[in-house]
């Protein structure tokens, strides 16, 4: 994403008369140029709100978030997180479509640091994501 976007949300769409045959960018947000936790937190809050609204519509999405955080050693780290957002209330057929299509889609995305299968708002809670990133950064 080259810091151009802090997040990108993707949706499976119809293409050339074929149902559910393409993955399209649905929404983006401009990248954060500096290591600012407050800006990062605000962007993540906006992002999770977008996914909450998708869940209200009982739909699935893919998303990428350029997540920045302060590590235990007081250095800033960014990691690109891929979210497969399959909320519990989405139709089984749509969940299956996103799961099977995701297997072909994710290898085309370069530089992913983490992949998260999320089914509930608890799965995308900022505290949960931060904890997972901190755990990963300790392991490296």
Automatic annotation (TrEMBL):
Pfam families: Cofilin_ADF. One of its GO terms (biological process) is actin filament depolymerization. PROSITE patterns: ADF_H. Keywords: Actin-binding. GO terms for molecular function: actin binding. GO terms for cellular component: actin cytoskeleton. Residues 1-134 form the ADF-H domain. The keyword ATP-binding does not apply. It comes from the Eukaryota. Belongs to the actin-binding proteins ADF family. This is Actophorin-like. It comes from Lingula anatina (Brachiopod). The lineage of its organism: Eukaryota, Metazoa, Spiralia, Lophotrochozoa, Brachiopoda.
